[in-house]
Design brief:
The protein is 37% helix and 17% strand. It is α/β, with parallel strands linked by helices. It folds into 2 domains: 126 residues, Alpha-Beta Complex (Aspartate Aminotransferase, domain 1); 261 residues, 3-Layer(aba) Sandwich (Aspartate Aminotransferase, domain 2), CATH 3.40.640. The strands form 4 sheets. Strands 4-12-11-10-7-5-6 form a 7-stranded mixed beta sheet, sandwiched between helices. It has a 4-stranded mixed beta sheet with strand order 1-2-3-15. It has a 4-stranded antiparallel beta sheet with strand order 13-14-17-16. The relative contact order is 0.16. 4'-deoxy-4'-aminopyridoxal-5'-phosphate (PMP) binds next to α4.
């Protein structure tokens, strides 16, 4: 009997022994194509030799050089290097361990910097499971239910979910911006609003891009009212959408970028970036923790950037993403219960539904289980688990995309007569 807490259930039955590139292997050496990437984390694939080498070398030098006591080379080098990737004038980086922690870092900073309390977040956004991050999250009630009341000072605005509304982009954008303006008149006056927090491409709710007009409308309102714009790039950033930051699809420069997941190829590391002038407005001693910017994690992050540059991973995400979209759209047209296919680059969601109001999580669950039996690992998301999510590593090859879609196709064909 396992003594592992049932609180942390697993979506697959696989017990992983080792991994390489896009593949993981169990202890009987069964191979699985890993199109989950540990929830969008292993961008350089499993155990990329460049990352492994950097980690091994760093582990022999110093592991824990506590970052509010001393500095260390990998952290200093990483902050310099990350700045080269940041949009606009963002020139200062603060590290922590997880996505949720980085969201909280950003929240404290914007409250300090503006002297305002409220934050506007969006329907369907996911920002984490710690109390403040969960208070900013509405991807599904499972993240919030049973432990209300949540943190105060959060207002939710509509996000242009085209599929759910059944509207085109123009109509959804106009509606959402109009509602946002109404929120400023009814729920949080601009002078009480510290920040607008958004995933430019929503992940957990089901791979909805915000759209250019919507993002620009937000940036415009932020400028007008002295509100800070925070981009949660934890899942969509670091190349996954086919651009380094998903914001680049929308020509918007935020005040704060939050990153994690793909940053360190699986080592726990997260960061926020802002201008130094903004960072200086945070209260001294209000941020930080015991483990942030771990030296081995920072070495892994530096090696991750080496791999990104040497292997052109962002471009690969773009091309392999197009291939994956094309291949999946053929399947989608073949089965009536495969509905909308959305996302950008290597972050796609396939709705298993008979329409926006008739999700079929039952079929989605059988599909992912059948795919697993054929050696393909996939996750689900959406409010009822009706969306199959496609998150291969950014090193994925053309042949591996074909292989994964073929396995999924075979699983769908097997299931179809039983539905
Ligand atoms: N923001 C986004 C957009 C995410 O996708 C996630 C994780 N799925 C988080 C925040 C929270 O990150 P973590 O699980 O590392 O706390």
């Amino acid at each position: 009997m396992s003594h592992l807490s049932p609180l942390l259930g697993q979506s697959s039955k696989v017990c992983v022994d080792h991994g390489k590139g896009s593949w993981v292997y169990d202890n009987q050496d069964n191979a699985y194509l890993d199109f989950t990437s540990g929830i969008g984390v292993t961008s350089t694939g499993h155990c990329h030799p460049t990352v492994v080498r950097a980690v091994q070398e760093q582990a022999g030098k110093i592991i824990h050089a506590q970052y509010t006591t001393v500095t260390h080379e990998p952290m200093l080098r990483l902050s310099d290097r990350l700045i080269g990737y940041m949009p606009g004038e963002l020139n200062s980086v603060a590290f922590s361990n997880s996505g949720s922690e980085a969201v909280e870092t950003a929240l404290r900073l914007v409250r300090h910097a503006t002297g305002r309390a409220n934050v506007i977040s969006f329907h369907g956004g996911f920002h984490g499971r710690t109390m403040a991050a969960a208070s900013l999250t509405t991807s599904a009630t499972k993240v919030r239910t049973g432990f209300h009341p949540m943190m105060a000072g959060v207002v939710f605005a509509p996000f242009p979910h085209l599929y759910r509304y059944g509207w085109d982009e123009q109509r959804a954008t106009d509606f959402c911006l109009r509602e946002l303006d109404e929120i400023f008149k009814t729920q949080t006056a601009p002078g009480d609003t510290a920040a607008i927090l958004i995933e430019p491409i929503q992940g957990e709710y089901g791979y909805y891009p915000a759209g250019k007009a919507f993002m620009q409308g937000l940036a415009e309102r932020c400028r007008q009212h002295g509100i800070l714009l925070i981009a949660d790039e934890i899942q969509a950033g670091y190349g996954r959408s086919g651009r380094f930051w998903s914001l680049e699809h929308f020509d918007v420069v935020p005040d704060v970028v939050i990153t994690a997941k793909g940053l360190a190829s699986g080592f726990p590391l997260s960061a926020i970036a802002a201008t130094e002038a903004l960072m200086k407005k945070g209260y001294p001693g209000s941020q930080g923790g015991t483990y942030g910017a771990n030296a081995v994690a920072c070495a892994a992050a530096l090696a991750t950037l080496d791999v990104f540059e040497e292997e052109s991973l962002v471009a690969n995400a773009r091309y392999r993403g197009e291939q994956m979209y094309q291949r999946l759209s053929v399947l989608r047209d073949r089965h009536s219960w495969m509905d909308d296919l959305r996302g950008k680059g290597l972050m796609l969601g396939l709705e298993i539904a008979d329409g926006p109001d008739q999700p079929r999580p039952d079929i989605a669950a059988r599909l992912t289980a059948a795919a697993e039996a054929k050696g393909l690992l996939l996750l689900r998301c959406g409010t009822s688990g009706q969306i199959v999510r496609w998150l291969p590593p950014l090193v994925v090859t053309e042949a591996e995309i074909d292989d994964a879609v073929d396995r999924f196709d075979a699983a769908a064909k097997e299931l179809a007569p039983t539905l």
